[in-house]
Amino acid sequence: MPGSVYDKVLSNAQEAKARDARLIGVVPLNDEKAEFTFDSLLPVPPVDELISPILTVIPLQLLAYHIAARRGLDVDQPRNLAKSVTVE
Q1: DSSP state, 77?
Q2: Separation between Cα atoms, residue 65 and residue 87, nearest integer Å
Q3: Phi–psi pair at 55, nearest 5 degrees
């Protein structure tokens, strides 16, 4: 079930698409609006709006992992990690 800002997100995505952006959407299964908006879909089961951030971050983490691995980057020691994480 789409959340309260879902239509706004689709509207923003359509604006980006009008500017020739290639869009990847993490969307509920069988969402017809999203199929017309995004170039690639990462479908997730429809869940309550409060749980959706937990569910949708998983495919995005996997996407980032596979892109980095395909580019030959070290997925266990990303560049500039020391600048964003402090170790005591």
Answers
A1: S
A2: 23
A3: -75, -40
- Residue 34 C-alpha from the chain's centroid: 13
- Our CA angle for 21, 25, 28, nearest 5°, is 155
pTM over 0.85: no
The encoded tokens of residue 60 equal 């995005």
Q: How far apart are CA 10 and CA 5, in angstroms?
A: 9
Q: What is the pLDDT of residues 58-78, one digit of tens each?
A: 999 999 999 999 999 988 887
3-state secondary structure 27-73: EECCCHHHHHHCCEEEEECCCCCCCHHHHHHHHHHHHHHHHHHHCCC
